[in-house]
Design goal:
Chain lengths: 137, 137
DNA sequence: CACAAACCCTATAGATTTAGTAGATTAATA
DNA sequence: TATTAATCTACTAAATCTATAGGGTTTGTG
């Protein structure tokens, strides 16, 4: 299941991407428009900023804005920052790999092979979808 | 993330599928062979039985066995029983649909469209993979 | 009958998620 | 300079989920 954190994060990003110009948008504006709890959204935007997706401006007239063009932000990046591994099991993850305790031989594991297939497909989608693609509808 | 319940369930099922003949296999046997907590596995096999995947036999010489041929058990069925929805968001789910609280228009939602793509692809894999496919390696 | 196995119910520690609360800090503006 | 609007930080808390353990019951077989 996708966490609300990720869901809200994506919604906020598309909201920012749809903006004309690049002037900062206040959290409260996004929060109201997208029906997201303000304080929760605050922490989400913060992690997006800390991971180089967003820039921020403090004080009056401040807010958040995209650091790159929406076409230059692949969903793989967004998903990994917000949701973590794209793979459903750590032993299949490229960026968050972890060995299973119970599994003596990864290459003989039925779960491993199945989940590798799923990850490859999902990864392909996220790679080929940019933030800009989510705005066009 | 895939729950251990699902992971263990799949491992147990492939273990049963690999069995010669159809004689029941005791929980303890699977538990030891696959390094799965016995009591946890017990509850997993129980739900698989209640959902028509496994049969069971009580008493001495008892245990669990597949009710159908492994080739006749698609992974969609297994995943839905153990993990629940295949989709990452309820508003995209075919079998477990739920409307989002925050989203006024599903068709205008960026998350919705992205996750529909992911679901379609994942579903395709699970549909085309049977339990028997997981045993061949 | 005795035993071995599935079956069923309950509890629980720990983790994670989704917030809410309170306040500090920064920057623009009147 | 005082005010105000905004981000930033840290703590707390409720709710839910996960993985497992314990103990007792039932049922079938040898």
């Amino acid at each position: 299941m996708l966490s609300k954190k990720t869901k809200y994060g994506i919604k906020a990003l598309t909201f920012l991407a749809k903006q004309e110009g690049k002037s900062p948008v206040a959290i409260a504006t996004i929060s109201k428009s997208e029906n997201i709890s303000l304080k929760f959204l605050e922490s989400i935007l913060l992690t997006l900023r800390k991971n180089g997706i967003l820039g921020s401006k403090k004080g009056k007239g401040g807010g958040y804005y995209l650091l790159k063009e929406a076409t230059e932000i692949p969903m793989t990046t967004v998903m990994r920052i917000l949701e973590g591994p794209i793979s459903m099991v750590p032993c299949v993850s490229l960026n968050f790999y972890e060995k299973c305790d119970d599994c003596p031989d990864e290459n003989a594991c039925s779960v491993h092979s199945l989940m590798t297939k799923v990850r490859d497909n999902t990864l392909e989608i996220f790679r080929n979808t940019s933030l800009a693609d989510l705005c066009n509808r």
